[in-house]
Structure prediction request, 369 residues.
Amino acid sequence: MKLEAVELRTVALPLVRPFRTSFGTDYVREALLVRARTDGGDGWGECVASTEPLYSSEFVAAAWLVLVDFLLPRLFAAPSLAAADVPSLLGDVSGHRMAKAALEMAVLDAELRAGGVSFQSYLGGSGDRVTPGVSVGITPTVGELLEVVSGYLDEGYRRVKLKIEPGFDYEPVSAVRELVGDDYMLQVDANTAYTRADFDHLARLDDAHLLLLEQPLGEEDILGHAQLAKHISTPVCLDESILSAQLASDAVELGACSIVNIKPGRVGGYIEAVRVHDVCAEAGVPVWCGGMLETGIGRAANLALATLPGFRLPGDISATKRYFAEDITDDFELVDGSIGVPHGPGLGVDVDIARLERFTQRRELVTRR
Ligand code: OSB
Ligand code: MG
Prediction:
């Protein structure tokens, strides 16, 4: 395959309700999209970086720049291109995993569409449907949280994840546990909002019998997570800290987590995401697919990934309408608590070009020279 040009775009999709985490509030999803134009046809990728470097050091404007100045030239220089070679072609560039992941995804989609192979079968998954969860932002009051959660229960979600932070943890979590009942799958995500001084406080969450506590401490605090894991009965899950299969396997061996959140963008792409899955499966550690408020492009790929056998817990891959009134692909719908996995070639979803144009804020076509 030969890469002829790459089109970059940002689209701004308004969220149906503000999404507040311990690090900030999002009202709009600004997504960076990558279209690979090859001699065999086009492919789509989505960069999960956010507008601001709060969840991760990566952000949309930086990803755009590193793609144009450093990543695209490396792929254009390759005489022929296969998706499996993208990680090594980009390997000398340090970091910028979300930008690399988006480019790898676009090349992979082009290759798979041309070959008539679905993302799911390329990644090694199987099955028609995935049972997702829903990630619920911090609300101004506990009453509002209960209302929002009730709405998702009515829609059929079988797992809820609550965002927590100091001052919004024990009380709202206990109230939601009461609402959903003892057997419901309930978990929480702190997005690094606590410190090593908070272990006794976090131990109070043990009462709520949570499925897991996601990333309570800083991204680099592997030792702190290992200490915390010994101090509480709630299983610790890592998100921000897991940047590669190597780090996943190290974190597990060090006792820093017993469950891993896999976000393909955070680890540099779907190929590395499968490696994270594999090392965790080898270690007997369950994984689940995280979300980054993706458009239908990223959602399609995450659904495919979540059908691998190690994905034993529901992922943050909710129905389109949980995020957007209008997306750039057809909507994914929750039916009887599950979402259908696309089976067509590549991502198996089409981009609605009229809607894409309408939501586009910035566009650049970079051609091979
Ligand atoms: O920590 O999992 C996270 C969204 C943006 C950044 C970080 C996170 C999240 C979510 C939303 O929790 C998951 C989703 O896409 O539904
Ligand atoms: Mg998280």
Notes: Residues 121-340 form a domain with the TIM Barrel fold (CATH 3.20.20.120).
